[in-house]
Recover the amino acids of this structure.
């Protein structure tokens, strides 16, 4: 895709993201207690993100003939859950930076950060209650059920990933990775935003299972590209510490490929590296793992997998959206697929 | 009250607690992934508790003419939220024991414990969705709104308390404590269980605000008695480390009283003690604080406050339940008040 075309996608992503952010800030409000709760809650949502979830949710709603205004509350709920998840995820991974700024637990300590995440979880229920008046009780219940499934899948995927780090698992396959990513990423980043958007746009008259394969391929492509960018992106552009995933021992497709292809001696040393607490790593160890990933083509493997998954997502787009009239939003959802793969931040 | 009478209350509390536990375990199920998630989730719920919340919710439902079976799902939702809150609360406070066994983060580490709490939070939505068929969509929505308010109050109260520890606040008043306790404890331990039980029992035909003062007095009495037991109870009976609250720097009514009545020199030393990380305390320091609490009558003050609040709750009982026919459940809710104050574990 050419640069100008990207500008169109980015502009619409940004428009939907900001609409959703405005709704989130409205939901958060300016309540007491401020200092250790409501002043901190807007921190992550306000850090500029890509807006993939609001884009898919609102874009799909419009592509299915709905009003964008009807999807903003649900998009805000999804984003609030997402940000709650990020706050806790950063604690669980011991991450120091998020979108270029210190993580909440790095700034305020773990106790306050755990509670801030809990507050965001409960705040996300509010716009879903608002759906009752906006969309009627029947549709509002269906959307709540979608969200319940979405959040449950995320914690189950998170449990898989935390278990791997806890057990220092070094014999994983690409299939293991994709199963974990389906649970941890795809449902809440792609599948449910599309399902919920379509439910609203079509007033409930749609079989939402048609988005499952589309969202799975797209979400997996997105996550793998994210893992690559975590490794090779520049700090300023990406806003996370480079090589953070390596330091945190995350079982990315890249690491799994490396463990499968390196020599027995290298594998032994990588396993020791992964076993050691983060602050016990010797200088240069992470750099050594990174160079091995280049040597064994692990990063190329991940990029190739992401492109293949994006191709499958393009194919599934026809199933999920093909029968709809040609609209700007239909085109927008289509174009997000390649944009997410080709982005460099 | 005489011993035999207590046995009646305890038996009914236990009956409602076990019914609710059975429902919780049904909701949790035996899903994958088990090892780092669903095998751990039942841990806290299965540890024997007092059953105050299920007792108030189901008892109030029955006192208001409802079937106990209609309140079990909502009681399970409240208990799941409560247990999720405990998992995160124990992380936030650095607690080592809960009901006589290691806390989840002590056993499995903080990352897995944060995620287990998140899982319990989302699981608690399931029985609330079940209310839709059981009680109809209108009543089910009202109960969801109650729960949303309940959870939000809890995280706000938690933020107040964490802020005090974070700032090493030493100039608090009894009113500050009661405001925090209203938010952190009373809403979810007493007020909302009663409100939700009455909504179900009366099929929505009840002004639930009548329970607010009753639940506030009762919840505050309960919490203050809990704080006293944390100090003076025996480990085996109470199941938490003795003096845990002192070590964690919790701003109990007892500590607040002591800080107000001790000498300037003692206050300075207590402030230093509270400021120091838990593992830096010198042996005997917590014991010294405890003895000061006895010397200055701080424990007597708390016991007296709890009794006064229980008296106020008995008075408010007439407002909330007085007009109802005399039933075993009405008597049961009434008797819980004194039982909670006079219990020694």
């Amino acid at each position: 895709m050419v640069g100008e075309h990207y500008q169109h996608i980015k502009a619409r992503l940004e428009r939907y993201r900001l609409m959703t952010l405005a709704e989130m800030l409205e939901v958060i409000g300016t309540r007491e207690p401020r200092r250790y709760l409501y002043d901190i809650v807007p921190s992550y949502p306000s850090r500029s993100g890509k807006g993939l979830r609001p884009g898919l949710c609102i874009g799909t709603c419009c592509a299915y003939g709905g009003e964008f205004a009807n999807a903003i509350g649900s998009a805000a709920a999804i984003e609030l859950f997402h940000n709650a998840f990020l706050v806790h995820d950063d604690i669980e991974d011991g991450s120091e930076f998020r979108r270029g700024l210190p993580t909440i637990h790095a700034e305020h300590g773990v106790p306050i950060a755990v509670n801030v995440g809990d507050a965001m979880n409960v705040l996300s229920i509010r716009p879903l209650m608002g759906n009752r008046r906006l969309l009627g009780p029947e549709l509002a219940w269906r959307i709540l059920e979608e969200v319940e499934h979405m959040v449950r899948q995320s914690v189950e995927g998170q449990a898989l990933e935390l278990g791997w780090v806890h057990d220092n698992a070094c014999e994983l396959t690409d299939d293991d990775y994709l199963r974990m990513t389906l649970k941890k990423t795809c449902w809440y980043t792609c599948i449910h935003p599309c399902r919920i958007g379509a439910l609203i746009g079509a007033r409930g008259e749609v079989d939402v299972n048609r988005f499952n394969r589309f969202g799975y391929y797209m979400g997996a492509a997105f996550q793998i590209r994210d893992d690559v960018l975590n490794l090779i992106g520049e700090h300023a552009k990406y806003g996370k510490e480079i090589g953070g995933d390596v330091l945190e021992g995350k079982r990315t497709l890249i690491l799994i490929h490396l463990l499968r292809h390196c020599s027995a001696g290298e594998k032994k040393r990588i396993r020791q590296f992964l076993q050691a607490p983060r602050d016990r790593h010797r200088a240069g160890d992470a750099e050594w793992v990174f160079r091995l990933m280049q040597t064994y083509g692990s990063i190329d493997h991940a990029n190739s997998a992401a492109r293949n998954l994006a191709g499958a997502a393009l194919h599934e787009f026809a199933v999920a959206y093909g029968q709809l009239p040609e609209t700007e939003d239909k085109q927008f959802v289509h174009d997000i697929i390649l944009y997410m793969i080709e982005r460099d931040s």
In short: The domain at 3-342 of chain B is CATH 1.10.600.10 (Farnesyl Diphosphate Synthase).
